[in-house]
Amino acid sequence: MLLYIDPGTGSMLFTILIGVLGAGAYKFKDMTVKARFLLSGGKTKSTDNEHPDYVIFSDHKRYWNVFEPVCDEFEKRKTPIVYMTASPDDPALDKEYEYVKTEFIGEGNKAFASLNTMHADIVLSTTPSLDVLYWKRSKHVKHYVHIPHAASDLTMYRMFGIDFYDTILTSGDYHEEQIRALEKVRKLPEKEIVKVGLPFLDTMKDRVDKAGKVSNEKKTVLVAPSWGSSAIFSKYGGRIIDELLKTDYDIIIRPHPQSFTSEKEMIDSLMQSYPESDRLHWNRDNDNFDVLRRADIMISDFSGVMFDFSLVFDKPLIYTDAEYDDAPYDACWLDEEPWTFRVLPKLGSKLTEENMKDIGALVEKCLTDKSFEQGRAEARAETWAYIGESASRVADYLIDKHEKMNREIIS
């Protein structure tokens, strides 16, 4: 009888095998690096890339907007750093640096197999689920640092998303409250929490200031949902598009990038049912700047892009009554409603089953109601600290942390 191994188990066994083989290969290298470090008095600059001081890992090219400002800051300071990506077409690979080494490490299991045995002092990433699924902590990495990729709740990651990082970089006080609450309920040791702001929002704001505003002939509505069972298209299907087509507005639909993988059948069906026209456009740009700049108002659910649009471009929202199911997320462990949902009424109006047929009037209300301007200012203060300083603060923290780690080893 043939032995059958399901794909999930096979993937796990593959990762374990790579880890076992890699451990032996890296043992001698690890001893050499440690000896070199101690002989230098703890001041090595990692002139080779066998054991760099700093590594950034990005699991998808769409997070380059998070890391580019940080890489630029390290370049400006003439401090070496290695940027590892799981996307072969990551824009980072085409950018010329002297002190930032960019490297494609493979996709999927190949990337994680490399990460699981990698050597580095500090690793910075926006990828959740460290030491939960395929990405395991390497015994050759001293410190893991997480940075968010959206101005929203850290508890809206999948379960245990940030539990096993050593440091969390935050952008608002409510982040620390949520992290400490999760640590308490799960009986976890306290992580280091450092408020630094949001580098990608700083960069986007700078681009907005330089580009100026767009003047549309007709008002443009952007539909930009998240993905999953609680998101717009899973809940409403094409009905929201039907109602928008009854208005005079131009319509842009930008599904979440993950939808094209996890919900491909549904998205393909919607794109076939609602093809491109002079009023309706489907958008899949890797960089969402132009589409956010063009839109006058956004309709979304719980996607972090709502805050990019509202806080940076200073425009109103319509958020859907998506009946968010928090069961798969860290938020379900806490009694308090996520900040994302508490703040939404300040930023715009809720779209429900009852008022969907009046969506045109709802759009007009949001575009003209001045109270939402004050709401955006309040939300900006709550979730976007140190505007314009974030990349510098991230670099400051990483470099200071590395120096502190060196002093501890010497002492």
In CATH, the topology of the largest domain is named: Rossmann fold
Strand order of the largest sheet: 3-2-1-4-5-6-7
* Number of helices, where a helix is a run of at least 4 consecutive DSSP H or I residues: 15
Termini gap: 60 Å
The secondary-structure class comes to: alpha/beta
**Helicity, as a percent range:** 40-55%
What does this structure look like?
With 411 residues, this protein is of the alpha/beta class. The chain has two domains: 45-198 and 388-410, Rossmann fold, CATH 3.40.50; 212-383, 3-Layer(aba) Sandwich (Rossmann fold), CATH 3.40.50.12580. The protein is built from 15 helices and 13 strands. Strand 1, helix 2 and strand 2 (81-85) form a beta-alpha-beta unit. It is globular and about 70 Å long. The N and C termini lie far apart (60 Å).
List the helices and strands and how they pair.
Elements: H1 7-39, E1 54-58, H2 64-76, E2 81-85, E3 100-104, H3 108-115, E4 120-125, E5 141-146, E6 167-170, H4 173-186, E7 192-195, H5 199-211, E8 220-223, H6 232-236, H7 239-245, E9 250-253, H8 259-262, H9 264-273, E10 280-282, H10 289-294, E11 297-300, H11 305-312, E12 317-320, H12 339-347, E13 348-351, H13 359-368, H14 371-383, H15 390-410
Parallel strand pairs: 1-2, 1-4, 2-3, 4-5, 5-6, 6-7, 8-9, 8-11, 9-10, 11-12, 12-13
Helix pairs in contact: 1-3, 2-5, 2-15, 12-14
